[in-house]
Amino acid sequence: MKLIVTGGAGFIGSNFIFHWRSAHPEDQIICLDKLTYAGNLSTLKDILDAPNFKFVKADICDRPTVYALFEEEKPDVVVNFAAESHVDRSIEDPSIFLKTNILGTSVLMDACRKYGITRYHQVSTDEVYGDLPLDRPDLMFTEETPIHTSSPYSASKASADLLVLAYHRTYGLPVTISRCSNNYGPYHFPEKLIPLMIINALHDEKLPVYGDGKNVRDWLYVEDHCRAIDLIIHKGKVGEIYNVGGHNEMANIDIVKLICKALGKPESLIEHVTDRKGHDRRYAIDPAKIHRELGWLPETKFADGIKKTIDWYLNHEDWWQPIIDGEYQNYYQQMYGNR
Ligand code: NAD
Ligand code: TDX
After folding, report:
1. Residue 244 · residue 223 · CB < 8 Å
2. What is the CATH classification number for the domain harbouring 8?
3. Whose CA is nearest to atom 29 of ligand 1?
4. Taking the alpha carbons of 274, 101, 4, 176 in that order, is the dihedral positive or negative?
5. Nearest-CA neighbor of 271 among 221, 317, 339, 190?
6. Which of 39, 166, 169, 242 has its CA 20 to 30 A from that of 120?
7. pLDDT tens digits for 145-199?
């Protein structure tokens, strides 16, 4: 099988490539990535010259380049991870989110229609369902929960999902969609909650918790997400949406305290800062469908996954230090300087 994996130099896409190469070593992977601020070729350094792997620097919105690649490679499967993924950045400037996340998705699917594929898989998010109240722990998102988005990021991802379903119904494109909860693990870009808190704590810097810190996220170890997508590609039903989540809801403040404890840092580093605009209160995925129909279950317990993740950041300063020394400094100053 030959796959084009878009966004494979980012957090989940790179973990997916590593997963797929070890689970299906005979398959060929072409990683298509624009290498935005969030993409890191260093993540893929060990496999750049490997047989059955090719890296192509390109923008999913660049129709002629995408078509030329499909014409040359004739992929069987396309897995689309490429996206602008950070909610805070989408609040500052939505435009690139609309371009990459919506238009880019349509260019990829047009290429799939033109050159023929056996599956187009769209990597979506639980954020398309909006949020749930904190005082109703019985409520969870199912695949039937109506779309109800909060941020420009989630609105762009929901728009892409609607387009994917439209291409299935209108053109018969063989699509699947996965909507996953918050991932954590190796190669997570330092702007996101868990790596940001680990790296700041290591430097004895303030730990900026938005609002009261009681917002709840449902955390899943990235490898479990990758296995879920693998299963959907092999056994999922075309035209279907699958929710992916690990029943692991945690308040932000508890995660930050846990990181302080694990690193032997004082909780006095925690600083409550101005809340995110439109901040979703709680996400909670009901993964019953993927369990029932495809037999998927998460394998990594949060206690083990967070330990592995913290150890990974402790041992991979060579990966994150160049990132935080670069453009990230300006970003951090702009987002947190006067917060
Ligand atoms: P990320 O920001 O770490 O990586 C995104 C990758 O896409 C980067 O390598 C970047 O260079 C690339 N990219 C961006 N724009 C591109 C373009 N126009 N053309 C080609 N490549 C481009 O993101 P992530 O956290 O790995 O998320 C991957 C996907 O999973 C996204 O679609 C996101 O919406 C979804 N998702 C993420 C989470 C999470 O917790 N991180 C949870 C659910 C779903
Ligand atoms: O400095 C911070 N302080 C803080 O309190 C940051 C960066 C975040 N937070 C809070 C906001 C959220 O409630 O932590 C929570 C997690 O924030 P993020 O890491 O930015 O993730 P989130 O907004 O939940 O979105 C993530 O999960 C769903 C991914 O970034 C999305 O791409 C995915 O779709």
Report:
1. no
2. 3.40.50.720
3. 81
4. positive
5. 339
6. 39
7. 999 999 999 999 999 999 999 999 999 999 999 999 999 999 999 999 999 999 9
CB within 6 Å of ligand 2 — which residues?
A: 85-87, 125, 127, 182, 192-193, 196, 208-210, 215, 217, 252, 276
Q: Let me know if 242 is a catalytic residue.
A: no
Active site residue 27: no
Listed in sequence order, the DSSP H helices in 276-327 are 288-294, 302-315, 317-325
How many domains does the structure of the chain reveal?
1
For helices 152-171 and 105-115, angle between their N-to-C axes, nearest 10 degrees: 20
Domain that holds residue 92: 2-336
Q: Is 190 in the pocket of ligand 1 (CB under 6 A)?
A: no
Give yes or no: 126 in active site: yes
**If you measure from the C-alpha of residue 168 to the centroid of ligand 2, how many angstroms do you get, rounded to a whole number?**
31
C-alpha dihedral over 86, 89, 93, 94, to 10 degrees?
Answer: 20
Q: Please write the tens of the pLDDT for every residue from 259-297.
A: 999 999 999 999 999 999 999 999 999 999 999 999 999
Closest CA to 83 of 29, 169, 152, 2: 152
